[in-house]
Write a structure and sequence with these properties.
224 residues; alpha+beta; NADH Oxidase; 4-stranded antiparallel β-sheet; two-stranded antiparallel sheet; 8 helices
Length: 224
């Protein structure tokens, strides 16, 4: 017997067709903006209006998701003591990674970036946005997994980074491994799995970034 599922409801889609020249201009403008985005590890302690963080997360929440379950949670940390705890726990895990967990090949790939176990940006950046992936939920007393949650949260994080960069804010995608300490420090339930930790703020006046290049279009696209 086929279950009696709820009938879908639809509303008209509002769409405005753009002239090709405007589409191209928008594409150029957005590329030029995003091409200036860099991973920043040196931050100023200059305050950031919280309204900007709220708007960026609201934008991230427009991402598509499997079965529209929106399996993300954005925990914003600005409390200095909690940031200190996060830094201490992250540096402990990173020390183990840089001194035994990571292979020689991995370390060689990281060398041009100049990274190590020291993470002062976790203290200095005005905000830390910890993104959690919700892997299940309870409805009518039954636990159900979220669908395509890894992909859905990844897309939302991409929109979050773009939104923050569009506001003139600096970011870093930090993924200390393992990240269970984030769940514990922030008191999150077991169904919320740490996905990425993003410091947000203004770059330090003397901030520097690695001299690296992005792959050109011909290396990342194929036409069939």
């Amino acid at each position: 017997m086929i279950p009696d599922f709820p009938a879908p409801k639809f509303v008209p889609f509002s769409f405005r067709a753009l002239p090709v020249d405007e589409q191209l201009q928008r594409a150029d403008d957005f590329f030029e903006l995003m091409n200036t985005r860099r991973t920043i590890r040196e931050y100023s302690d200059r305050p950031v209006p919280f309204e900007l963080i709220e708007k960026a997360i609201t934008t991230a929440g427009t991402a598509p998701s499997g079965a529209n379950l929106q399996p993300w949670r954005f925990v914003v940390v600005r409390d200095a003591e909690i940031k200190k705890k996060i830094r201490e726990a992250a540096e402990k895990e990173e020390y183990e990674s840089y001194h035994g967990r990571m292979s020689e090949k991995w370390l060689r790939r990281l060398a041009p970036l100049g990274t190590n176990e020291d993470k002062p940006f976790l203290d200095i950046a005005p905000y830390l946005i910890v993104v959690f992936r919700i892997n299940s939920f309870v409805e009518d007393g039954e636990t159900e997994p979220t669908y395509y949650s890894q992909e859905s949260v990844g897309i939302a994080v991409g929109l979050l980074l773009a939104a923050l960069h569009n506001m003139g804010l600096a970011t870093l995608t930090h993924t200390p491994s393992p990240m269970k300490f984030l769940q514990e420090i922030l008191g999150r339930p077991k169904n919320e799995v740490p996905f990425v930790l993003i410091p947000v703020g203004y770059p330090a006046p003397d901030a520097k970034v690695p001299d690296i290049k992005r792959k050109p279009l011909e290396e990342i696209m194929e036409m069939i």
